[in-house]
Design a protein that fits this description.
Layout (H helix, E strand, L loop, with lengths): L2 H12 L14 H27 L2 H6 L3 H23 L8 H29 L10 H36 L4 H42 L4 E5 L28 E3 L2 E6 L7 E2 L18 E4 L7
Length: 304
Amino acid sequence: MDIEFKMLLEFQKKAGMLNFKPYITQYPYAYEKKYADIIRKYQKEFMDYAIEKFDQRLKKWFLIENYDEYSDDYELFNKEMNEKLLALFGASFLWNTPISVELQNFIDLLFKFDMTQWQRQLEHFLHAAYIAKTDWWNEIKNRWIQNNYLLVKNLSQDFLNKFNILLNVGIQNGWTLDDFEKDLRKLYNTFSMGRVNLLARDQVGTVNSTIWKESYQSIGLDWYIWRTARDERVRGNPLGKYPHAVPSHYVMDNKLMKWSDSTVYSEDDGVTWNQKTMIMEPLHVGMAIACRCVPLPYFKFFAG
């Protein structure tokens, strides 16, 4: 526990100034959308380039009878695609490339959003000014940037792989141009919308949870309350879109949890701790793929 926080906590506790009821933590929906837009920009540039180069060859390839002629042009097409990948992302991660700078700027904004909430929580709890410590952040930030560089780059590579499979299946099975263009449009929509949005939600949710975990632990706070988005998309909500989802996040709502042990929960303010059941989410809040749940600080942890 931070010494400054500990001293202020004890002083305010003796003065009867602590407010144990937390504010509701907000999930960063706007930042999730902003990150999806960043990913989509790179994805669309690569996919649009691929389709442009493919359109120049489309009718020719579907009319070719000599396989060797098709094979040579197909190799040239993939060479052009790999050169475009290199132009967009480079051969490996570097800090001063356009995508790396965008990732840095984005994660700084998300961190500021979360820290503004955390600062408000602490001052509300303590009834006093206190500057939250963030010396843990740079390592997490740098790791997130490098990992997301790879994830965004790999998304474009995955599109190219699926594109090539689609092309070869179409040519080998005698598809018409209309058949191929229809399936190509589906592929394009999947990678420009669904896959992009899923990646953005997953990576924003995960780093958001990590920021909160480190913030709590920096003041020695181990307990948190699990709060779902409380809408129809919550996994396991019996009246929602995914009523039979397992693991269920619906059953996690309002449960008391420990950052130090993701396998247990409490329903009696930490008097007893139970092992999670089979239908409960085994991971911490926000860490499951595309999870929008958030933690609320359980400040009664400091009441003793």
